[in-house]
Every structure is written in structure tokens, then in C-alpha cells.
Design brief:
The protein has helices at residues 5-12, 16-23, 31-44, 50-56, 73-87, 102-109, 129-133, 159-172, 190-205, 223-235, 248-260, 294-309, and strands at 62-67, 92-97, 119-122, 140-143, 153-156, 178-183, 215-217, 242-245, 270-272, 289-292, 319-321, 324-327. By secondary structure, it is of the alpha/beta class. Strand 6 (178-183), helix 9 (190-205) and strand 7 (215-217) form a beta-alpha-beta unit. Helix 1 (5-12) packs across helix 2, helix 1 crosses helix 3 (31-44) and helix 8 packs across helix 9 (190-205).
Amino acid sequence: MRHRLKDVAERAGVSVKTVSNVVNGYVHVRPDTRARVEEAIAELNYRPNLSARNLRKGRTGVIALAVPELDIPYFAELARHVVTAAAEHGWTVLIDQTGGGREQERVAAAGIGDHMIDGLIFSPLALTADDLAGLDGTPMVLLGERVDHGPADHVGIDNVAAAREMTAHLIGLGRRRVAAIGSQRTPEGASARLRLAGYAAALADAGIAYDESLVASAPAWHRAEGAAAMRSLLASGVRPDAVFCFNDTLALGALRALHEAGLRVPEDVAVAGFDDIEDGRFSVPTLTTIAPDKERIARLAVDLLANRLGGDRTAPPRELPAPWTLIPRESTTPA
């Protein structure tokens, strides 16, 4: 049986209005009265009807998270943190997979459907700042590198600095022929371009010439593409002594290809990734990686959205950086 405010009021011997004031956190309630109401709430296991409350406020109590691919572990792990952070606001999270396609991203950015969601946390690949500026209505927070300093609040890490530090880590181990896997020349490849820029900057810092033959493209950042790129590098006669993969799933594929080729990691070739997905902590060897603070990214995004939904809709878009850490593991440093 689901109890109502009226049941709590009768149990506590107060008015329905007083119970409502306690439930909604109003401070102007006498301590002894508040104690009686809270005791009645506990005894009846009363739970507020959030749906009704949201409808009265013109809200659904639902936000959306739209990402390109849920089978990329980074996005799956990020989604878990968004759900946790949103629950603190009493929100349900609708998760949408866009595939990075322009039309599906337009649907997501437009609010998915009339009155379905209150706000959107969005990692676009196809849409540009101009595309998003032309949309009206749904409060939005952007993730990723495709659009920043644009028409909406944005949370992200410094990809150039992170990639630069990882490449410097490999060079600092005495590796001089550092390959890169994951370059992309398409408009959607913003993350790839930034990480490639960081890689190139670290080589320049060390006085090492940039060698195009050591850079392998990957149209998608999956394990299969990482393995294929590593095989292609080896088949071309290039023999790197280290490989920086632009995400961890590429790195896991590269590890497999190196194993098949009879090369030892890290003795023959050191391997590093980016994203700190759980798989990399259990691979053999464990994977050196850049760890974006996914929990912090999620919390910043949810808090920004809460500010907008709370009435702060006309303030200029905010750009919030999130921290990251380089985590050395067995794939670059022998145990």
C-alpha cells in the first residue's frame, strides 16, 4: 500500500501542509513538529510522488545522455557515473546511442521528443557549433571535443596535454621510435586530432622528428581496428619500440597483434592507451593509460544542467575542465 501525505499528517497529528513543508525542506517548521512528521514518515515508509511533483513544476524528472557508442567502454562507464549523479537530483536518465550520425544527433539535440526530457548531456561527433546554436529549447551540456567554447556549457579534459604527457612518458623510458594508433582525418575525429597534436608536441620536445610512417589511422576506435593497425605497422617494415594508442580499446587490440607476432610487451614494444577502462586493469600485461576522471566529468555535467534547469538559462556558456592522471602499468614498465 502506498501511503499519501494525508496518512502521514494523520499519524503525526498535523496538517497536510505541514507535512508538505517538511518533505520539501522548508526551514520554518518547529523542531518538535518536524520530528513528529519525520517519525511518521519513517513508520509509514512514505515516499514522495516525484512524478506528480515534477508535473506540477512543468518537468518530467527525466534527463538524457546521448553518446556515440555504448559498446565503447568509456561511454558505458561514463553513463554509470551520470546515472549516479543524476539520482541525487531525483532524476531518471534516458540513454541514447546516436552512432555519431548527423540525423540521430539532431533528434537528440532537439530534445528527443516533445516534453520527453528536461535536459540533455550530449557528446556529439557530427554536429557543429553552428548546428547546435540553431536549435532552441532543451537545456544542454556538451562533452567530448567536437564542440567546445560553443553554444552550450561544456565539460572536457585537455587532450593535447594528456597525450603529450603520455608520449613523453614513453620517450622517458628510452623509447625513440614511438608509434601512434588512432589518427582520423574526418570532421568527426576531433579527439584524434588533439591527441595526435599532443603526440607530435612531445616528439618535438624530445628532439625526435615526426615520422608519418609511425602513425596509423583507425576509422573506429575498437579492438579490431587497433589490432589491424598494429599488424599494418609491422607488415610495413616499421618496427616501433613503443605505441601510443588513442584509446584503450585500440591498445587492447594492439596487444593482441603484438602477441601474435611473437613480440613481448613491454620488453620489445611498450604499449599505452587512453581512457582507463576496466578491461585495461585486467589485461595481460595491465595497460598503462591516461585516466580521465569520469566521475568528476559526470558530476560537473549534471551540476551544470541542474543550474540551467534551476533558472540560470541566460548566463553565458561555461567551459569546465576535468582532471586526468597518467597511470603507469605493466605494458610500459615491467613488474
